[in-house]
Protein backbone atom coordinates (compact mmCIF):
# COMPACT_ATOMS: atom_id res chain seq x y z
CA UNK A 1 0.00 0.00 0.00
CA UNK A 2 1.14 3.55 -0.73
CA UNK A 3 -0.29 6.82 0.55
CA UNK A 4 -0.50 10.15 -1.26
CA UNK A 5 0.50 13.07 0.96
CA UNK A 6 -0.24 16.40 -0.75
CA UNK A 7 2.14 19.28 -0.19
CA UNK A 8 0.22 22.48 0.57
CA UNK A 9 1.90 25.81 -0.08
CA UNK A 10 1.72 26.52 3.64
CA UNK A 11 1.22 23.87 6.34
CA UNK A 12 -1.97 24.05 8.36
CA UNK A 13 -1.81 26.19 11.50
CA UNK A 14 -2.15 23.22 13.86
CA UNK A 15 0.74 21.51 12.07
CA UNK A 16 2.90 24.65 12.19
CA UNK A 17 2.29 24.76 15.93
CA UNK A 18 4.09 21.41 16.21
CA UNK A 19 7.36 23.20 15.44
CA UNK A 20 9.09 23.96 18.76
CA UNK A 21 12.60 25.34 18.18
CA UNK A 22 14.30 24.93 21.55
CA UNK A 23 17.58 23.08 21.05
CA UNK A 24 17.72 24.48 17.49
CA UNK A 25 16.59 28.04 18.29
CA UNK A 26 20.07 29.56 17.88
CA UNK A 27 20.95 27.73 14.67
CA UNK A 28 19.91 30.61 12.41
CA UNK A 29 21.50 33.33 14.56
CA UNK A 30 24.63 34.72 12.85
CA UNK A 31 27.78 33.68 14.68
CA UNK A 32 25.94 31.68 17.36
CA UNK A 33 28.96 29.38 17.69
CA UNK A 34 30.96 32.28 19.16
CA UNK A 35 30.94 32.83 22.91
CA UNK A 36 29.97 36.51 22.85
CA UNK A 37 26.91 35.82 20.67
CA UNK A 38 25.98 32.76 22.74
CA UNK A 39 26.09 34.83 25.95
CA UNK A 40 23.81 37.45 24.36
CA UNK A 41 21.33 34.63 23.65
CA UNK A 42 21.09 33.51 27.32
CA UNK A 43 24.20 31.36 27.12
CA UNK A 44 25.67 29.98 30.37
CA UNK A 45 22.80 31.34 32.48
CA UNK A 46 21.70 27.74 33.06
CA UNK A 47 25.17 26.82 34.35
CA UNK A 48 25.04 29.64 36.91
CA UNK A 49 21.62 28.41 38.01
CA UNK A 50 22.66 24.74 38.15
CA UNK A 51 25.69 25.47 40.32
CA UNK A 52 23.27 26.74 42.96
CA UNK A 53 21.75 23.26 43.30
CA UNK A 54 23.13 20.43 45.37
CA UNK A 55 24.24 17.63 43.04
CA UNK A 56 21.53 15.23 44.23
CA UNK A 57 18.86 17.92 43.81
CA UNK A 58 19.98 18.57 40.23
CA UNK A 59 19.66 14.88 39.42
CA UNK A 60 16.20 14.78 41.02
CA UNK A 61 15.20 17.82 38.94
CA UNK A 62 16.31 16.11 35.73
CA UNK A 63 14.35 12.98 36.66
CA UNK A 64 11.28 15.11 37.33
CA UNK A 65 11.55 16.69 33.86
CA UNK A 66 11.05 13.31 32.18
CA UNK A 67 13.96 14.02 29.81
CA UNK A 68 14.95 10.85 27.95
CA UNK A 69 18.08 10.13 25.95
CA UNK A 70 18.19 11.24 22.32
CA UNK A 71 20.76 8.69 21.16
CA UNK A 72 18.41 5.81 20.36
CA UNK A 73 17.51 3.89 23.52
CA UNK A 74 15.49 6.69 25.15
CA UNK A 75 16.76 5.91 28.66
CA UNK A 76 15.82 8.55 31.28
CA UNK A 77 18.75 10.98 31.57
CA UNK A 78 18.31 11.72 35.28
CA UNK A 79 18.21 8.03 36.11
CA UNK A 80 21.42 7.43 34.15
CA UNK A 81 23.11 10.21 36.12
CA UNK A 82 21.87 8.66 39.36
CA UNK A 83 23.47 5.31 38.49
CA UNK A 84 26.94 6.84 38.91
CA UNK A 85 27.83 5.91 42.51
CA UNK A 86 28.81 8.57 45.04
CA UNK A 87 31.87 6.59 46.12
CA UNK A 88 34.70 9.12 46.24
CA UNK A 89 36.36 7.79 43.06
CA UNK A 90 37.16 9.94 40.05
CA UNK A 91 34.12 10.12 37.77
CA UNK A 92 33.95 10.75 34.02
CA UNK A 93 31.33 12.10 31.64
CA UNK A 94 31.58 10.88 28.04
CA UNK A 95 29.52 12.44 25.25
CA UNK A 96 28.89 10.13 22.31
CA UNK A 97 29.20 12.27 19.17
CA UNK A 98 30.12 9.32 16.93
CA UNK A 99 27.09 9.81 14.70
CA UNK A 100 27.43 7.30 11.86
CA UNK A 101 24.22 5.36 11.24
CA UNK A 102 22.73 5.71 7.74
CA UNK A 103 20.15 8.49 7.78
CA UNK A 104 21.25 9.99 11.10
CA UNK A 105 22.33 13.63 10.85
CA UNK A 106 21.12 15.70 13.82
CA UNK A 107 24.24 15.89 16.02
CA UNK A 108 26.61 17.34 13.44
CA UNK A 109 24.58 20.52 12.76
CA UNK A 110 24.07 20.93 16.51
CA UNK A 111 27.83 20.86 17.13
CA UNK A 112 28.50 23.18 14.20
CA UNK A 113 25.77 25.75 14.84
CA UNK A 114 25.57 25.81 18.63
CA UNK A 115 28.65 24.17 20.21
CA UNK A 116 28.44 26.16 23.44
CA UNK A 117 25.04 24.64 24.27
CA UNK A 118 26.78 21.26 24.31
CA UNK A 119 29.68 22.61 26.39
CA UNK A 120 27.26 24.21 28.87
CA UNK A 121 25.27 20.98 29.10
CA UNK A 122 28.50 19.05 29.70
CA UNK A 123 29.42 21.37 32.57
CA UNK A 124 25.99 20.95 34.19
CA UNK A 125 25.94 17.16 33.78
CA UNK A 126 29.52 16.83 35.06
CA UNK A 127 28.64 18.87 38.13
CA UNK A 128 25.62 16.63 38.80
CA UNK A 129 27.64 13.39 38.68
CA UNK A 130 30.75 14.92 40.34
CA UNK A 131 32.95 14.41 37.28
CA UNK A 132 36.15 16.43 36.99
CA UNK A 133 36.87 15.34 33.42
CA UNK A 134 34.59 15.07 30.40
CA UNK A 135 35.29 13.69 26.94
CA UNK A 136 33.48 14.31 23.65
CA UNK A 137 34.09 11.45 21.21
CA UNK A 138 33.57 12.92 17.72
CA UNK A 139 33.22 10.84 14.56
CA UNK A 140 36.58 10.75 12.77
CA UNK A 141 35.25 12.20 9.51
CA UNK A 142 33.71 15.23 11.27
CA UNK A 143 36.97 17.19 11.43
CA UNK A 144 35.18 20.54 11.13
CA UNK A 145 32.91 19.74 14.09
CA UNK A 146 35.84 18.70 16.28
CA UNK A 147 37.64 21.92 15.36
CA UNK A 148 34.62 24.03 16.27
CA UNK A 149 34.16 22.22 19.59
CA UNK A 150 37.81 22.71 20.51
CA UNK A 151 37.45 26.41 19.83
CA UNK A 152 34.31 26.53 22.01
CA UNK A 153 36.14 24.75 24.84
CA UNK A 154 38.99 27.27 24.60
CA UNK A 155 36.56 30.22 24.71
CA UNK A 156 34.62 28.74 27.64
CA UNK A 157 37.80 28.07 29.61
CA UNK A 158 39.11 31.60 29.05
CA UNK A 159 35.77 33.00 30.28
CA UNK A 160 35.78 30.87 33.45
CA UNK A 161 33.02 28.44 32.42
CA UNK A 162 35.50 25.54 32.38
CA UNK A 163 38.73 24.83 34.22
CA UNK A 164 39.46 25.52 37.90
CA UNK A 165 36.86 26.91 40.33
CA UNK A 166 34.14 27.47 37.71
CA UNK A 167 32.31 30.75 38.42
CA UNK A 168 33.68 30.69 41.97
CA UNK A 169 31.80 27.50 42.84
CA UNK A 170 34.79 25.35 43.71
CA UNK A 171 33.87 22.96 40.89
CA UNK A 172 36.69 21.99 38.49
CA UNK A 173 36.19 20.53 35.02
CA UNK A 174 38.45 19.76 32.08
CA UNK A 175 36.85 18.92 28.71
CA UNK A 176 38.70 16.92 26.04
CA UNK A 177 37.56 16.70 22.40
CA UNK A 178 38.65 13.35 20.95
CA UNK A 179 38.37 12.42 17.27
CA UNK A 180 37.72 8.77 16.46
CA UNK A 181 38.96 6.92 13.39
CA UNK A 182 35.66 6.50 11.56
CA UNK A 183 34.57 3.07 12.83
CA UNK A 184 30.78 2.82 13.16
CA UNK A 185 31.12 0.24 15.94
CA UNK A 186 32.66 2.92 18.18
CA UNK A 187 29.21 4.46 18.47
CA UNK A 188 28.46 1.53 20.81
CA UNK A 189 29.23 2.92 24.23
CA UNK A 190 31.67 0.29 25.52
CA UNK A 191 33.53 0.12 22.19
CA UNK A 192 33.76 3.91 22.42
CA UNK A 193 35.35 3.61 25.86
CA UNK A 194 37.95 1.14 24.59
CA UNK A 195 38.73 3.47 21.69
CA UNK A 196 39.15 6.39 24.10
CA UNK A 197 41.62 4.29 26.08
CA UNK A 198 43.68 3.73 22.93
CA UNK A 199 42.53 0.15 22.37
CA UNK A 200 40.79 -1.41 19.39
CA UNK A 201 37.14 -0.34 19.50
CA UNK A 202 35.17 -3.49 20.34
CA UNK A 203 32.14 -3.94 22.61
CA UNK A 204 32.70 -5.16 26.15
CA UNK A 205 30.81 -7.95 27.85
CA UNK A 206 28.38 -6.55 30.44
CA UNK A 207 28.08 -6.59 33.44
CA UNK A 208 29.98 -4.72 34.80
CA UNK A 209 28.32 -1.62 33.37
CA UNK A 210 30.00 1.72 32.57
CA UNK A 211 28.23 3.45 35.46
CA UNK A 212 30.54 1.57 37.85
CA UNK A 213 33.35 0.30 35.59
CA UNK A 214 33.63 2.59 32.59
CA UNK A 215 36.50 4.68 31.25
CA UNK A 216 39.78 3.52 32.85
CA UNK A 217 37.60 1.23 34.98
CA UNK A 218 36.12 4.25 36.80
CA UNK A 219 32.43 5.25 37.17
CA UNK A 220 31.37 6.81 33.86
CA UNK A 221 28.18 8.33 32.47
CA UNK A 222 27.74 8.21 28.68
CA UNK A 223 25.21 10.53 27.04
CA UNK A 224 24.36 11.48 23.47
CA UNK A 225 24.95 14.98 22.05
CA UNK A 226 21.23 15.75 21.85
CA UNK A 227 20.62 14.51 25.39
CA UNK A 228 23.23 16.87 26.83
CA UNK A 229 22.53 19.89 24.59
CA UNK A 230 18.93 19.99 25.85
CA UNK A 231 20.01 20.16 29.51
CA UNK A 232 20.65 23.96 29.71
CA UNK A 233 17.22 24.66 28.21
CA UNK A 234 15.54 22.37 30.75
CA UNK A 235 17.41 23.95 33.66
CA UNK A 236 16.35 27.45 32.57
CA UNK A 237 12.79 26.59 31.55
CA UNK A 238 11.93 24.18 34.35
CA UNK A 239 10.83 20.56 34.55
CA UNK A 240 7.13 21.24 33.93
CA UNK A 241 7.89 23.52 30.98
CA UNK A 242 9.85 20.70 29.33
CA UNK A 243 7.04 18.24 29.96
CA UNK A 244 4.46 20.62 28.49
CA UNK A 245 6.44 20.92 25.25
CA UNK A 246 5.90 17.24 24.52
CA UNK A 247 2.95 14.90 24.32
CA UNK A 248 1.01 13.21 27.09
CA UNK A 249 3.48 10.34 27.48
CA UNK A 250 6.72 11.89 26.17
CA UNK A 251 8.37 15.06 27.46
CA UNK A 252 10.07 17.77 25.44
CA UNK A 253 10.93 18.25 21.82
CA UNK A 254 12.71 16.03 19.32
CA UNK A 255 14.83 16.87 16.29
CA UNK A 256 13.39 14.80 13.44
CA UNK A 257 15.90 14.39 10.58
CA UNK A 258 13.84 14.05 7.41
CA UNK A 259 15.48 12.66 4.29
CA UNK A 260 14.32 10.92 1.15
CA UNK A 261 11.29 11.64 -1.01
CA UNK A 262 10.15 14.95 0.48
CA UNK A 263 10.43 18.41 -1.07
CA UNK A 264 12.28 20.02 1.84
CA UNK A 265 14.45 17.47 3.68
CA UNK A 266 16.14 18.74 6.81
CA UNK A 267 16.00 19.05 10.58
CA UNK A 268 12.58 19.71 12.13
CA UNK A 269 12.43 20.22 15.89
CA UNK A 270 8.87 19.44 16.92
CA UNK A 271 6.87 18.36 19.93
CA UNK A 272 7.55 14.77 20.83
CA UNK A 273 4.81 12.66 19.29
CA UNK A 274 4.48 14.51 15.99
CA UNK A 275 3.23 12.14 13.26
CA UNK A 276 4.89 11.38 9.94
CA UNK A 277 1.94 12.93 8.11
CA UNK A 278 2.56 16.21 9.94
CA UNK A 279 6.31 16.06 9.32
CA UNK A 280 5.81 15.47 5.60
CA UNK A 281 3.43 18.43 5.49
CA UNK A 282 6.05 20.61 7.21
CA UNK A 283 8.58 19.39 4.63
CA UNK A 284 6.41 20.57 1.74
CA UNK A 285 4.84 17.20 0.94
CA UNK A 286 6.15 14.24 -1.02
CA UNK A 287 8.15 14.87 -4.16
CA UNK A 288 5.95 15.29 -7.23
CA UNK A 289 4.84 11.96 -8.65
CA UNK A 290 5.75 10.00 -5.53
CA UNK A 291 3.51 8.29 -2.97
CA UNK A 292 4.66 7.15 0.47
CA UNK A 293 5.44 3.42 0.61
CA UNK A 294 7.59 2.91 3.72
CA UNK A 295 9.81 4.78 6.17
CA UNK A 296 12.26 4.26 9.01
CA UNK A 297 11.36 6.15 12.19
CA UNK A 298 14.91 6.12 13.59
CA UNK A 299 17.54 5.20 11.04
CA UNK A 300 18.55 2.00 9.28
CA UNK A 301 18.80 -0.04 12.50
CA UNK A 302 15.09 0.44 13.28
CA UNK A 303 12.39 -1.75 11.70
CA UNK A 304 10.80 -0.06 8.71
CA UNK A 305 7.12 0.80 8.88
CA UNK A 306 4.65 0.81 6.01
CA UNK A 307 2.56 3.78 4.87
CA UNK A 308 -0.23 2.49 7.14
CA UNK A 309 1.72 3.95 10.10
CA UNK A 310 1.69 7.50 8.76
CA UNK A 311 -0.46 8.71 11.68
CA UNK A 312 1.46 6.97 14.48
CA UNK A 313 2.78 9.56 16.99
CA UNK A 314 6.56 9.43 16.71
CA UNK A 315 7.47 9.04 20.37
CA UNK A 316 9.14 6.19 22.24
CA UNK A 317 6.04 4.29 23.34
CA UNK A 318 3.79 4.68 20.29
CA UNK A 319 6.50 3.73 17.82
CA UNK A 320 7.25 0.65 19.94
CA UNK A 321 3.56 -0.30 19.82
CA UNK A 322 3.68 0.02 16.03
CA UNK A 323 6.52 -2.50 15.95
CA UNK A 324 9.59 -0.32 15.57
CA UNK A 325 11.97 1.89 17.60
CA UNK A 326 12.20 5.68 17.69
CA UNK A 327 15.99 5.45 17.63
CA UNK A 328 17.75 8.61 16.51
CA UNK A 329 14.63 9.94 14.72
CA UNK A 330 16.40 9.67 11.38
CA UNK A 331 13.16 9.55 9.38
CA UNK A 332 14.04 8.18 5.94
CA UNK A 333 11.06 8.42 3.61
CA UNK A 334 10.66 6.07 0.63
CA UNK A 335 8.08 6.16 -2.14
CA UNK A 336 6.32 3.71 -4.44
CA UNK A 337 9.28 4.18 -6.81
CA UNK A 338 11.76 2.82 -4.24
CA UNK A 339 12.42 -0.86 -3.64
CA UNK A 340 12.60 -2.13 -0.04
CA UNK A 341 14.70 -5.12 -1.14
CA UNK A 342 17.38 -2.87 -2.63
CA UNK A 343 17.30 -0.61 0.44
CA UNK A 344 17.84 -3.59 2.75
CA UNK A 345 20.69 -4.89 0.60
CA UNK A 346 22.48 -1.55 0.88
CA UNK A 347 21.99 -1.38 4.65
CA UNK A 348 23.13 -4.97 5.21
CA UNK A 349 26.25 -4.24 3.17
CA UNK A 350 26.94 -1.35 5.54
CA UNK A 351 26.53 -3.53 8.65
CA UNK A 352 28.67 -6.32 7.19
CA UNK A 353 31.42 -3.79 6.48
CA UNK A 354 31.18 -2.11 9.91
CA UNK A 355 30.98 -5.27 12.04
CA UNK A 356 34.05 -5.43 14.28
CA UNK A 357 34.13 -9.22 13.81
CA UNK A 358 34.29 -10.04 17.52
CA UNK A 359 31.01 -11.99 17.59
CA UNK A 360 30.62 -14.88 15.14
CA UNK A 361 26.85 -14.47 14.54
CA UNK A 362 27.30 -10.82 13.54
CA UNK A 363 30.50 -11.34 11.54
CA UNK A 364 29.26 -14.35 9.58
CA UNK A 365 25.55 -13.62 9.55
CA UNK A 366 25.83 -10.20 7.93
CA UNK A 367 28.34 -11.46 5.36
CA UNK A 368 26.07 -14.29 4.27
CA UNK A 369 22.96 -12.11 4.21
CA UNK A 370 24.74 -9.82 1.74
CA UNK A 371 25.41 -12.85 -0.48
CA UNK A 372 21.77 -13.96 -0.28
CA UNK A 373 20.52 -10.47 -1.17
CA UNK A 374 22.87 -10.33 -4.15
CA UNK A 375 21.60 -13.72 -5.30
CA UNK A 376 17.99 -12.52 -5.10
CA UNK A 377 18.67 -9.19 -6.82
CA UNK A 378 20.63 -10.87 -9.62
CA UNK A 379 17.63 -13.05 -10.47
CA UNK A 380 19.16 -16.25 -9.07
CA UNK A 381 17.15 -16.39 -5.86
CA UNK A 382 14.66 -18.97 -4.63
CA UNK A 383 11.91 -19.26 -2.04
CA UNK A 384 14.45 -21.02 0.16
CA UNK A 385 16.49 -17.81 0.28
CA UNK A 386 13.69 -16.06 2.14
CA UNK A 387 13.72 -18.83 4.74
CA UNK A 388 17.51 -18.52 4.88
CA UNK A 389 17.24 -14.77 5.59
CA UNK A 390 14.70 -15.42 8.34
CA UNK A 391 16.93 -18.11 9.85
CA UNK A 392 19.98 -15.83 9.74
CA UNK A 393 18.05 -13.07 11.53
CA UNK A 394 16.84 -15.51 14.18
CA UNK A 395 20.41 -16.65 14.84
CA UNK A 396 21.72 -13.07 14.95
CA UNK A 397 19.12 -11.60 17.28
CA UNK A 398 20.35 -11.36 20.87
CA UNK A 399 23.54 -13.30 20.19
CA UNK A 400 26.06 -10.47 19.99
CA UNK A 401 27.85 -8.38 22.62
CA UNK A 402 26.30 -5.19 21.24
CA UNK A 403 23.28 -4.05 19.26
CA UNK A 404 24.88 -4.00 15.80
CA UNK A 405 23.77 -7.53 15.03
CA UNK A 406 20.24 -6.88 16.29
CA UNK A 407 20.04 -3.62 14.35
CA UNK A 408 21.12 -5.30 11.14
CA UNK A 409 18.19 -7.72 11.31
CA UNK A 410 15.58 -4.99 11.72
CA UNK A 411 15.28 -4.00 8.08
CA UNK A 412 15.30 -7.63 6.92
CA UNK A 413 12.54 -8.91 9.21
CA UNK A 414 10.34 -5.83 8.76
CA UNK A 415 10.69 -5.79 4.96
CA UNK A 416 9.80 -9.48 4.78
CA UNK A 417 6.79 -8.74 6.97
CA UNK A 418 5.44 -5.83 4.91
CA UNK A 419 6.89 -6.34 1.44
CA UNK A 420 7.39 -10.05 0.87
CA UNK A 421 5.91 -9.70 -2.60
CA UNK A 422 8.78 -7.40 -3.61
CA UNK A 423 11.18 -10.25 -2.85
CA UNK A 424 9.01 -12.71 -4.78
CA UNK A 425 8.96 -10.37 -7.78
CA UNK A 426 12.74 -10.78 -8.13
CA UNK A 427 12.62 -14.51 -7.44
CA UNK A 428 9.79 -15.14 -9.93
CA UNK A 429 11.24 -12.89 -12.61
CA UNK A 430 8.59 -10.16 -12.47
CA UNK A 431 11.32 -7.57 -11.83
CA UNK A 432 14.50 -7.33 -13.92
CA UNK A 433 17.74 -8.39 -12.27
CA UNK A 434 19.61 -5.51 -10.68
CA UNK A 435 23.04 -6.82 -11.70
CA UNK A 436 24.85 -9.76 -13.32
CA UNK A 437 25.25 -12.75 -11.02
CA UNK A 438 28.48 -13.83 -12.76
CA UNK A 439 30.19 -10.50 -12.08
CA UNK A 440 29.53 -10.49 -8.35
CA UNK A 441 29.79 -14.23 -7.73
CA UNK A 442 26.24 -14.44 -6.33
CA UNK A 443 25.23 -17.58 -8.23
UniProtKB/TrEMBL annotation:
Alphabetic keyword roster: 4Fe-4S, Flavoprotein, FMN, Iron, Iron-sulfur, Metal-binding, NAD, Quinone, Translocase
Annotated source species: Glycomyces harbinensis
Catalytic activity: a quinone + NADH + 5 H(+)(in) = a quinol + NAD(+) + 4 H(+)(out)
Protein name: NADH-quinone oxidoreductase subunit F
Keyword Iron-sulfur: yes
Ranges for domain NADH-ubiquinone oxidoreductase 51kDa subunit iron-sulphur binding: 341-386
Name of a matching Pfam family: Complex1_51K
PANTHER family: NADH-QUINONE OXIDOREDUCTASE SUBUNIT F
